[in-house]
Amino acid sequence: MLKFRGCLAGGLVGDCLGSPFEGDIVVPKPALQKFIAKQLEEQTEKLPSFQVFSYTDDTAMTKSIAQSLIEMKKFDPKDMAKRFALEYNKEPKRGYGTNVVDVFAALMLANYEHPFEPAKRQFGGLGSYGNGGAMRCGPVALYGYSMEQNRLIELTRDCARITHSNLLGYNGAILQCLAINQALHIHSPLKGLIDINAFLNGLIEKMSKVETDSERNENNGSERIPTPFTDKLRKVKEILNNELKGTFYSVDKIVAILGNDISALKSVPTAIYAALRGQFPIDGFESNSPFVRTLFFAVSLGGDTDTIASMACSISGAIYGIDAIPRILLKHCESNDVMEKYADDLYRLVRCN
Ligand code: 8NA
Ligand code: MG
Ligand code: MG
Ligand code: MG
Prior knowledge:
Layout (H helix, E strand, L loop, with lengths): L1 H17 L10 H13 L15 H16 L4 H14 L9 H10 L7 H4 L17 H6 L5 H13 L5 H19 L10 H17 L15 H17 L6 H8 L9 H10 L12 H11 L4 H16 L6 H5 L4 H17 L1
Helix pairs in contact: 1-14, 1-15, 1-17, 3-4, 3-17, 4-5, 8-9, 9-10, 9-15, 10-11, 11-13, 13-14, 13-15, 14-15
């Protein structure tokens, strides 16, 4: 239960507190340190100066997935597609990706029949490789908590394919979902270190199977590196092992190796790295909390800060549980009560099945 809540609440905190920096090429560490310290300091939301940060498309779509799974008690692609489109129509100004909104319009026009079809027509038939499938998969990982692995992978792929039919778009979602799923299953003391190499070896093994499954990986015409996500995970492992030995990497170097943009390939492995990087101290930021360090680190990379922080913090929240997230940070986020309710509803659903 605590890990379920930690996952969805973590994703919300990353989105809400990362979004003020979205698109910034450089995020100066002192300014970010000050920003996070300010949110941690204000101990009561009753002050007039207390700021509540709005969530963006990341959370809007996460909410739709949670609602659909909870209410339908199964994956129903038509229902999920409808919720995406209606939610967008209700509140279009949540910072959606520039092209995904065409999918919503086409879904609606076809009355949600054939919910996988409009996404396939995106980008001249290549489909989107954006991180929009990955950024919203927290509830999928919770719903699939006890699922056999191949079923969880299929479910995640299908949830992503409603808007992201490119191999890189849906495989990014699968990697993010597997990372959360693994985080939910490991035993983790509140502030202790998890075994980074064991965590990454597990993901590398799973992801390399996903990426070499030729039957599934039809390529939409895009240029093909055989195992791009697995290769990135190996880089994450190499960087973290060097850092554990005292050789630290600059933000520029991390961005050059892993990326920080809106594509799934250049943001999901980055988020996994940030989730794990929070386990040890960060230069220019004083905090003993692995969760808060992950938030800081993810946003400090710049680029798609809300989405990278949201994905990183949902993994961290799933590792450490909601008690590791400072309550006051959550109070700064719109809809924090709703996200906890969804986590509890999904927990009950999983327990009943
Ligand atoms: P999407 O499917 O519209 O993709 C996002 C962008 O990725 C597109 O607009 C393209 O620029 C590019 N892209 C994706 N696939 C291809 C392709 N096959 N060929 C060429 N270009 C491609 O939306 P999404 O749901 O994946 O987007 C998620 C991101 O958008 C999140 O980071 C989210 O926070 C949001 N976002 C919003 C803003 C903003 O202006 N507020 C800025 C960045 C990201
Ligand atoms: Mg966003
Ligand atoms: Mg935004
Ligand atoms: Mg974003």
